[in-house]
Amino acid sequence: MPLDFTRLPEGLQWRLIVHELAHQWQGNAIRLGAWQDIWLNEGFASYAEMLANEAFPTLGGHSPQQIRAGWEANLRRSSRATPLAYPLPHEMFSLESYDKGAWVLHMLRVELDDLAFFEALRAYIAAFSDDTVTTLAFFQFMERHSGRDLTSFRAQWLEQPGLPRATLYWQPEPGGVALRLCSDNPNQRYTATLPLQFSDATGRTQALPMPLDWLSNGATIQQDFSYPLNIIPAQLVVDPGEQLLEAIRAERVEALPNCSG
Ligand SMILES: [Zn+2]
């Protein structure tokens, strides 16, 4: 039965059109070398929805951050145990291929910066049109074009399943804040910058980019941080601009608890 566009909510109509148009590049002009690389097709087409929204902010009534937050909410609920690069046959069209695929492209853009990312993407489309691609070939091309080593980026987002899951306890201390990160990811490594935004009782804010580097070997990992602040923190928002795919919950405490407890 043909899809009746007029019956879709307005915000979804344009997203569906953009998504399917984007497949003319990723999916039709550039084809997959193997079905396991399906995230390249669906991640690109999904990311195009957000890029269209960035270019035409009045489309659909959601900001790019809200679109990324929607993908993130889906992924926080996902229980898929296989990495994005190695879906089981029945997982090929699971939401991870779409939502995590789009997130991976966004984080690659943050990693490379806008200019390098879009230049490399244009060159990639020119180089691979009428050809096939694999996940490895895509990353090798982006590395050559940007001059950046993306080995650990690919390992943490493509080769291990899920997303960083943790509780971030925080406690105001004189002149700053003390934090303890309790990670729930068994046997995983994540290296990233977690944007934090503190605000005081009057609403003044201070941003704090917190470097994460956790390697957990089966057990919960505990990491402590301490930073000076110019404000007395009353509230903490984790990743206010939706720059990092994560499920990190902040909790204010009177005393930092042990992670195992
Ligand atoms: Zn699609």
How do the helices and strands line up, and which of them pair or pack?
Elements (H helix, E strand, L loop, with lengths): L9 H13 L7 E3 L5 H18 L8 H14 L17 H18 L1 H15 L2 E3 L1 H12 L4 H8 L6 E9 L2 E8 L5 E11 L5 E11 L5 E8 L6 E4 L8 E6 L9
Parallel strand pairs: 1-2, 3-9
Antiparallel strand pairs: 3-4, 4-7, 5-6, 5-8
Helix pairs in contact: 1-2, 2-4, 3-4, 4-5, 5-6
The structure holds zinc ion.
H/E series:
HEHHHHEHHEEEEEEE
Q: Which CATH architecture of the largest domain?
A: Orthogonal Bundle
Termini gap = 55 Å
Which ligands, by name, code or SMILES, are bound?
Answer: zinc ion
- Beta strand count: 9
CATH topology of the largest domain: Neutral Protease, domain 2
Proportion of beta-strand residues: 15-25%
Key phrases:
261 residues; alpha/beta; Neutral Protease, domain 2; Immunoglobulin-like; three-stranded antiparallel β-sheet; globular; binds zinc ion
Describe, in plain words, how this protein is organized in 3D:
Strands 7-4-3-9 form a 4-stranded mixed sheet, with no helix packed on it. The chain has a 3-stranded antiparallel sheet with strand order 6-5-8, covered by helices on one side. A two-stranded parallel ribbon has the order 1-2. It has helices at residues 10-22, 38-55, 64-77, 95-112, 114-128, 135-146, 151-158; strands at 30-32, 131-133, 165-173, 176-183, 189-199, 205-215, 221-228, 235-238, 247-252. β5 (189-199) and β6 (205-215) form a beta hairpin. The chain has 2 domains: 5-158, Orthogonal Bundle (Neutral Protease, domain 2), CATH 1.10.390.10; 165-252, Immunoglobulin-like (Sandwich), CATH 2.60.40. It is α/β, with parallel strands linked by helices and 261 residues long. α2 (38-55) packs across α4 (95-112) and α5 (114-128) crosses α6. The chain is built from 7 helices and 9 strands. Helix content is 38%, strand content 24%. The longest helix is centred in the N-terminal third of the chain and has 18 residues, at 38-55. The structure holds zinc ion (ZN). Zinc ion binds next to α2.
